[in-house]
Amino acid sequence: MQIQINSGDNVTLDASTALHIEEQIRGILARFEDSLTRIEIHLSDDSAARSTDSDIRCAIEARPAGLDPLGVTHLAGDPLEAALGAGRKMARQLDSVLGRRSETKGGDSIRGGGA
Predict the structure, then answer these.
(1) Digits of tens for pLDDT over the chain (115 positions)?
(2) Are 55 and 75 in contact (CB under 8 A)?
(3) 111 burial via Cβ count (<10 Å: 0-12, 13-18, 19+)
(4) In Å, how far are 45, 84, 113 from 77, measured between CA atoms?
(5) Sign of CA dihedral 9, 12, 18, 21
(6) How far apart are CA 86 and CA 41, in angstroms?
(7) pTM
(8) Are 21 and 56 in contact (CB under 8 A)?
(9) What is the Cα–Cα distance from 65 to 33, expressed in whole angstroms?
(10) How far is CA 33 from CA 28, 46, 58, 76, in A?
(11) Is residue 39 within 8 Å of 46, Cβ to Cβ?
(12) What is the 3-state secondary structure (H, E, C) of the chain?
C-alpha cells in the first residue's frame, strides 16, 4: 500500500511530522493493506491563515483494488489530529464497503433453518 502526503501552502509539515502521519495512517488502515493500492492524504488550511479551532482539513482518498476510490475529510486544529480523524473515518468506510463485498448470498438465514 503506497501512501502519499500532500500539503497546501498554509500548512507547514516537516519531514518528521509527515513520517509520523504516514505511520499512524498505515497503522489505522493496516487490516485493509491487501485490498488497497494507494492512499492519498491532502492537508490544507481552510481558514487561509486566520486562527480558528478547527482550521486544518485532511482529505484522504483510498483506492481499493477493483473498486472506485473512496474519500473522507476531517477538520481539526493541527495536521496530525486532522489526519487521525480522517483515518478513523476511512477505516469505518472501508469496513462498510469491503465488508459488503465479502458477504455473499446463500449464507445462513437469520430466521433459522426449518427442516
Answers:
(1) 899 999 987 888 899 999 999 999 999 999 999 999 999 999 998 776 566 666 899 999 999 998 999 999 999 988 999 999 999 999 999 999 987 665 555 555 566 655 5
(2) yes
(3) exposed
(4) 10, 12, 53
(5) negative
(6) 9
(7) 0.81
(8) no
(9) 10
(10) 10, 30, 20, 26
(11) no
(12) CEEEEEECCCCCCCHHHHHHHHHHHHHHCHHHCCCEEEEEEEEEECCCCCCCCCCEEEEEEEEECCCCCEEEEEEECCHHHHHHHHHHHHHHHHHHHHHHHHCCCCCCCCCCCCC
Q: Report d(CA 46, CA 58) in Å as an integer.
A: 10
Q: How far apart are CA 83 and CA 56, in angstroms?
A: 9
CA separation for the pair 105, 100 (Å, rounded): 11
pLDDT, position 103? 55
Q: What confidence score (pLDDT) does residue 102 get? A: 56
